Amino acid sequence: MNVSRMTRWGLGVLAALALPLINPNPYQLDVLTTSLLYALLALGLNLIVGLTGVLHLGYAAFFAIGAYTAGWLNIHWHVSFWFGLGPAALIAGLCGVGLGVPALRVRGDYLAIVTLGFGEIVRIAFTNLEQWTGGPNGLLGIEHPRLWIPGMGIVDFGVSSAPYYYLVCVITGLVAVLCVRLSRSRVGRAWIAIREDELAASCSGVPVLHLKLLAQGCGGAIAGVAGAIFAAKQGTITPDSFDVILSVMILSMVVLGGLGSIRGAIIGALILGTLPELLRGFEQYRMLVFGVAMIAVMRLRPQGLFGGFQRRISP
Amino acid sequence: MTSPPLQLLLQQLINGLTLGAIYALIALGYTMIYGVIQLINFAHGEVFMVGAYAALTLLLAIADLAASAALPWWVALAGCGFGAMLACGGLGLAIERLAYRPIRHAPRLNALITAIGMSFVLQNAVMLFYGATDRHVPSLIPLVRWNLAGVTVTFMQLIIWIASGLLMIGLHVLVMSTKLGMAMRATAQDLKACALLGVPVDRIIATTFMMGSALAAMGGTLFGLHYGTINFHDGYLMGLKAFTAAVLGGIGNIPGAMLGGLVLGLLEGLGAGYLSAQWKNAFAFVILVLLLLCKPTGLLGERVGDRA
Amino acid sequence: MPSLLDIRGLTKRFGGVLAIEQVTLRIVQGETIGLIGPNGAGKTTLFNCVTGVLRADAGDIWFGREAKTSLLGLAPHQIVECGIARTFQNIRVFSSMSVVENVLMGTYARTHAGLFSAMVLSATARREERWTRDRAMGLLELVGLADHAEEMAGALPFGLQRRLEIARALASEPALLLLDEPAAGLNPVEKQGLLRVVQQLKSQGLTILLIEHDMHVVMPISERVVVLDYGKNIAEGSPEAIQRDPRVIEAYLGTSHM
Question: Which residues in chain C are contacts of A89 at CB distance < 8 A?
């Protein structure tokens, strides 16, 4: 990276870190944190939809699986947030692969419906398996993260906004960097080739099914991490938070940002995540706006804000 | 008082067939649209819901007339039903023209995303206009019921069967015996060839959307009258189930959609008796997922031609 | 002489149509074989069966030194790993990737950097990236596309895209290269360029199976020509003999097909 780019990145990072000090408004910080959490989810979905071209309508299910895994481990086995991240990511990732194995055999349109069905089945299951998931009331009493900070001792995140803001910034930033590295690597190239032309990719030596499953696993794992953060932040999680509307919302963020673009996923999430707050009083129009956004983007600028390509129409 | 098992079973079957008829009406729209442009019209379930609300609006408008006996119930029913069909036919045309036609040659993914967006727009438009709470549908059909050997059949159910039956027969005749129907079938088989032969494919596709939407509207009308309450969220659930029915019968296959609707209704009717209400919806999704994974061609086989 | 590729009795049906029937083809290491026949004779279907895109209904495909590995039932990427690469009749380059990235794609089967090494940018991964890049540039030079390395593949003219496909196929270090009508749509100058590239590949010992209609392309480079018609072998021999063979002439001009 050249000097000017590094300078820009450095300034951006500094600005992001300094924000809570400049504007400590907890409510606004919270909105930004939530948007950044959406950005994390969008990065994960981008791997699946943007990089491999698989339309996934049940992404919220992996978010739920991560949240419930971390939450359950915390409540029943007193696993702290930090140690819960790993299992949450692992289990959600495995579920991603597990769903992919049967589902990826199915052709495009039907695959979308299968993922939708899966998402709903997970939500309904979480609502009804009272013994494990607390049913409609969900899991209560999940501990907030605790971190030892030099000079401050052990800090409980509690319900203040700033600690979560930093947490999500760091994790989302880290995942973004990993995604960038991935997209420029042998694996990432293969994913893009699959999206472009599966047959040509296959005949060039790319094991298409394995790589699609890998994308599903990675996407699932990222959602799992987001879920663990969400559970620890909220303290209480209910199945209603993980419905198809959330799945579609994340999808619209990826679409707006541009399929396959990492920058786009983050910015799309920030835009669509903060927009409802900017239009206070127009809360109920939120879903309408998402719907219109998707139609408009597909019609006027299908590559979104930062995407640069159009998939080859399959023969 | 508990009914003997056989009569319980028959009752579930009767109820199931009623629901199935409504599923069939909606499923026909999915199957016809997929047949011509290979698109899962996610917004179709919402069209059904709009039909229910349209019928409700008309019903409330003429409620006074009907009550004062100036208008016999069956005229009111026909009026609301056809009014809803007209409204939704127009809605279908608009959706096709504004949202789907411009991107007909774009990659599949784009069309699916547009359809999802459209479904959200419709759902929320109705929610904003009519409110998020359930709306009550005034009863219109005389509350007559017959008891045949312990099994109850209501007049409403009979109306549903008759209305949906007539529409399905009408559609079948149209598709099989008219020039328009032939054009529709040909377009579904090979759109490019039809275009080259001078068939006005744009108009055929628009007509298909219109007809599918009109049928869904009648389904919505009957649904509202039968259950007495409607909610803006009904489109999503009924839509998915109707889609399951369309796939069950074989996507693109018109008799298949009718059969699929009835079979799904029967399955649900039977399941409702023996499954708890909470798992009922999961049951439908499980059927859908298993179907798509294991036998996506359905019972009567797909009828999907070459992509445009 | 030991065969590299040994196809025996290969048959493929599409519904009621027999695309290829009991086709036999033997290629010896280092040979270039031309596969010709009228349109619809089943040539591309044969390619598709060999490369795993289609599953043959009957017959055997043996590959490798002494033709001991059966290719039946293998997925396309596994067949690439065995050492067979192909180009397509309707060009299938990755349009939104750059020219060099297209060639890099071809190296997938010969490289190993996985998820983990990609994320941590390990020294092994970086070394492999450098090595594959150098190799890709070398291949681009071979086909004369080195100057276009960073351009979008979709923006290249048709003739250059064909060469890109060849470079991509070569990237997987194949022992056998399948070319599906590489000269189609090329002007005479471009065809000469193509011949030069193929001659160079031959001199490096590559075994080539070539589908082509233009006999001016087939003649200079093929040791043997195999002719298919209606999915069946009808003739085999040197290019000169084939050109004079009455069965072949009939197949193309179709006195008996009228």
Answer: none
What is the mean pLDDT of the segment spanning A287-313? 77
pLDDT tens profile C15-31: 888 899 999 999 999 99
Q: Looking at domain C1-83+176-182+205-258, does it have CATH number 3.40.50.300?
A: yes
Q: How far is A196 from chain C (nearest CA, A)?
A: 6
Query: Per-domain residue ranges for chain A?
Result: 26-242
Residue A291 pLDDT class (50, 70, 90 cuts): confident
What domains can you pick out in chain B, each with its CATH number? 5-134+145-294 (1.10.3470)
Closest approach of chain C CAs to the CA of A8, in angstroms?
A: 23
- Which residues are CB-neighbours of B27 under 8 A, at least 6 positions away? B242, B243, B245, B246, B249, B257, B258, B260, B261
Q: How far apart are CA C180 and CA C173, in angstroms?
A: 18
Phi and psi at residue C52, to the nearest 5° = 85, 5
Residues from chain B that touch A116, judged by Cβ atoms under 8 A, are 240
In this complex, the residue of A110, A298, A302 whose CB is nearest that of residue B292 is: A110
Handedness of CA C210, C213, C219, C221 (dihedral sign): negative
- Using a CB-CB cut-off of 8 Å, the residues of chain A touching C162 are none
**Considering only A248-252, B13-17, C33-37, C248-252, which range has the smallest mean pLDDT?**
C248-252
Nearest CA among B227, B182, B224 for reference residue B207: B182
Which CATH code is given to the segment(s) C92-173?
Answer: 3.40.50.300
Model pTM score: 0.87
Q: Report ipTM for this prediction.
A: 0.89
Q: Indicate if C92-173 has the same CATH topology as C1-83+176-182+205-258.
A: yes
